[in-house]
Write a structure and sequence with these properties.
Layout lengths: L22 H31 L6 H24 L12 H11 L2 H13 L5 E8 L4 E8 L9 E8 L6 H4 L3 H8 L5 H10 L1
Antiparallel strand pairs: 1-2, 1-3
Helix pairs in contact: 1-2, 3-7
Amino acid sequence: MAAKYELPKLDYEYSALSPYISEEQLKLHHLKHHMAYVNGANTIFEKLQKSRQENSDLDMKSTLKELSFHVNGHVLHSLFWKSICPKSLSREKPLGKLAKLIDSEFGSLERFKKEFSQAALTVEGSGWSALGHCKKTNGLLLMQIEKHNVNCLVGFRPLLVLDLWEHAYYLDYKNERAKFIDAFWNIVNWKEAEKRVEDA
């Protein structure tokens, strides 16, 4: 595998999400934690390539489990940076197809936000709350992803994700996850979620 994963550049400055996410918190999250998943995935790809070149054996169970952890960590973080935006660019509600799907599935935006927030609040340990879209049924589904790779439903394209690992909010909110979740709704990038469902 010649190509490697790279840390994506953010679409906004590190200070642009304040006061909901501080510059210090965002820098640490992006430059340190996300970078660790990028490096972890690339290291395992190199390990796999080397074992193939040398015709040596690996513990495939542990290697592939670790690979899924790092790759999904990279993918979900990359989606998270797109799921949020500066308050000045955020809207109070989605439009178009996404708005219609939310109304159809949840009954109202308020009900969707309540369920999404409850899923986020009750993630056991470290994980994610995500809104997924099924292309086959054109339906929406909430996912409560543990770590990066448990309870993630295959076939549902993530439209909106919220990182609930403590490294995403601890500097700003300490152990008060609920306050971080409330803050998230001020910086949701509905345009990106709308684009993802339209592209699907």
